[in-house]
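Internal ticket #5521
Category: modeling
Description: The requester needs a full-assembly model to guide mutagenesis choices. All entity lines are attached below as received. Residue total reported by intake: 584.
Assigned to: D.W.
Attached entities:
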Amino acid sequence: MTVEDTKTHELRRDLINFASYNYLGLSYRPEVKEAIKEAAEIYGGGASGSPILSGNTALHTRLAEEVASFKQKEAALVFPTGYSANIGTISGLMRSGDLVVADQFAHASIVDGMVLSKATSRFFRHNRVDDLDRKLRGFEGKKLVVIEGVYSMDGDLPPLADIVEVCREHGARLMIDEAHSAFVFGENGRGVVEHFGFEDEVDIHLGTFSKSLGGQGGYIAGSSRLVNYLRGFSRSRFFSCALSPVVVAGLLKALELARNEPELRRRLWRNVEFMQNRLRNAGVPVGDSTSQVIPIMVRDDARIFQIGEEIFREGVFINPVKYPAVGKHKSRFRMSISAAHTEEELDKGAEIIIQVLERYGICQ
Amino acid sequence: MSVDTYDFHTGVTAFFEMATPDARAILPAHLEPIEVRHQRSVLAVMAFLFEKSEAGPFTELMFSVVVPPVVRKWGKHAKGGFYPFLGATSSEESRRQRSERFHFPYLDQNIDAQFIERNGTLRVRAWGGGKPIVDMSVTQEAWEPTSHLLQGFMMNGKQRLRTTLQISGEYTVHENERGSMELFPHPLTQSLLQREVAAYPFREHWFKHGTEVFHSLEAF
């Protein structure tokens, strides 16, 4: 996978890219590129309008329908970004006097949605259902719980069965952000809700097009009532220009490929297993990740960038993350595995990372 | 200008999330709580075992709300600001001295505290009037020498006061959420038990063998 060198603005084809969300490798597929070119010929560069005015094309409508069909939900709504999907959905649904409870590791867009909603906001300890139960207890009124399918800094999954049960007990609606898990988890790629068998128990299914589909944008899927309500009340969509039809055309093709080529997911999971085993066997601390997002726990806030530079010089592009993006002494590299990685790339990349980490005494 | 130096054997500052409306209810109108995330402010629980001071050796337990420090154009910037709203010490002399100089809001009652260090964990248990107050633990990561410049904000009636303090010593800090805190019904914790306070610290500071130096109190 190609990486642009930010210093020279040249494409570096010699780097092994473990920093991309292009989990299924669809961004580079010739069919996707061709669909984008064709749409550019027909529609030009952008939508040139809000989705409720002139910005919605037949392509946009088809994308929403395809997403609803893929997620097996009554309806879906397309947003210009994943960020706007979260803030538009949460602030559109919740009001002052309501309660929103999110996992403490929830994405900034979830937190910002909570801020905009003016609802009472609480956060439960990461993946701790007992704490969620405590935070919901005693509140009378409308309640929404927001979790993620795969947590983007740790690569771990929520205990969905237990969370569903607690939400039921408290009469709370459940929303899941499957930005990193849709098209990756589940036999048909419908996310961790399919993986755990709780597709009908979750009320609001949110995802992005910028990860596995390699494009841009976000969506929510759920009941027709939910979608119709948000069509009018999600201001981040209402007052934004619609996605470019060029992007939408690429997404439609990428979605088609993701649905029709389950071998992409199988290849991704083979790659994940290969890399997880390779790193664990070498003593690289990879936390509790059970997904394609693998944190390499360096825990050395002072030297993480130095180590990252060294890994980069040796031919691997990987994201260093440190405080305040994560807690103190929780600095790490965030590695993203793709179906597009070859075994040779994975092996070579792992070798480089392991060698550098060993020099710094990080391997256990 | 330094006015007071206290040598300590052990010190703990543990930071807990609390509801912002609760933090605002504690703070005077001119101070704003710092939020770690939307509607979550920070309660700091400090427990120090002082070995040497003008008031002799004593133990102090203090509850504060974390606020932004005042940043001046020149000079060193403080790392954080604290509004101590309720505390207690193990001796009347220490309370008298620190109340007179810094207007700390002490409960007029002696407390006892145990600092138990075992396997990288420090457990602090405090009692007052025969009743338990708090049982708190913090854990260690790597130790290193440090010096923290902080600001304390106090009130004397309607007068707004500020002091700068420097805590130096061996230090370990992390955000691995391994610590814990249990509050018990007691006049010191009464207001907190009715509020929404986390049962574990999101950040744990542990100091050893250091000094706490206070600078002159200023009205502002």
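Resolution: model delivered.
Comment from assignee: The mean pLDDT of chain B is 93.
Ticket closed.
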